[in-house]
Amino acid sequence: MRNPVTDCLLNHRSIRKFKPDPIEPGKIDAILHAAIRTATAGNLQAYALVVVDDPKRLKEMKLDSAPAALFALVDQYRLKRWFEVSGTPFYNDQAANVLISFWDATIALQNAVVAAESLGLGTLYLGTVLSENVQEVLGAPQYTFPAGLVLLGYADETPALRPRLPLEAVVHRNRYHVPTDEEIRGFYREEDARYEALPEETKAMLRKKGVTNRAQHRTIGHYTEELIRRESEAILANLKRAGFRFTP
After folding, report:
1. How far apart, in Å, do the first and last CA atoms of the chain sit?
2. Which of 7, 150, 152, 176 has the fewest Cβ atoms within 10 angstroms?
3. Cα dihedral sign, 126-129-131-137
């Protein structure tokens, strides 16, 4: 069953080449209004959205490949201030608060992405924001933490839709189905075939790094243990810097 909303969602693609044209203020406002209408735990909206569209700031942040960037932050600071001026104790600096706020922030950001794409804009999520020091880069106070970052602008390319796993690989009915080895191989058959279709010189270069299949290409060749460790350490440092505690 299709409608304009599902068509928009089914046609999502990451845009890595944007036109320099600025986004009309009315469109930015419409995107932000759509973002804050998302579901939120306790109707507290424990997140912040930071629009960066000043060319100088974008260049400083190395985000100037697009005319605008939208940061989504966990924001317990605003709640802390509200509690303080209302004579209410603050203990929202714990794991539950971080995770629920993170959920709120990413849902709001996805609403913004869908709204932007429905208005003819292109978008690109940047996952490395989790290790970004938003206190330094954005002047964010304590009890804030990066949850997501999206680049926005008019697309200067029309990339093909990226492949996705079959529905049965990610959808479970009523309880989690633990797949067999054969089912796992079936889920990733097309991924493995794409690796086999690489030019022989590319595969020869990868073999020198110990890469002989698609899964190894993803780990040894890209998301290395060193990269994951470095990002994890930076994320933990971000949580500590922001004042969040993960022990009651």
Report:
1. 47
2. 176
3. positive
d(CA 70, CA 43): 22
CA distance 32 to 51: 9
Helix (H, G, I), strand (E, B) or coil at 69: strand
Cβ pair 194, 203 in contact under 8 A:
no
Residue 247 pLDDT:
74
CB atoms within 10 A of CB 160: 6
pLDDT digits (tens, 9 = 90+) for 87-119: 999 999 999 999 999 999 999 999 999 999 999
Torsion of CA 14, 20, 54, 26, to 10 degrees: -80
Q: Please report how many Cα atoms fall inside a 13 Å half-sphere around the Cα of residue 159, on the Cβ side.
A: 14
Write the DSSP string, 14-43: B---B-SPPPPHHHHHHHHHHHHTS--GGG
Rg (CA), the chain: 21
Domains of the chain in start order, with CATH, are 4-159 (3.40.109.10)
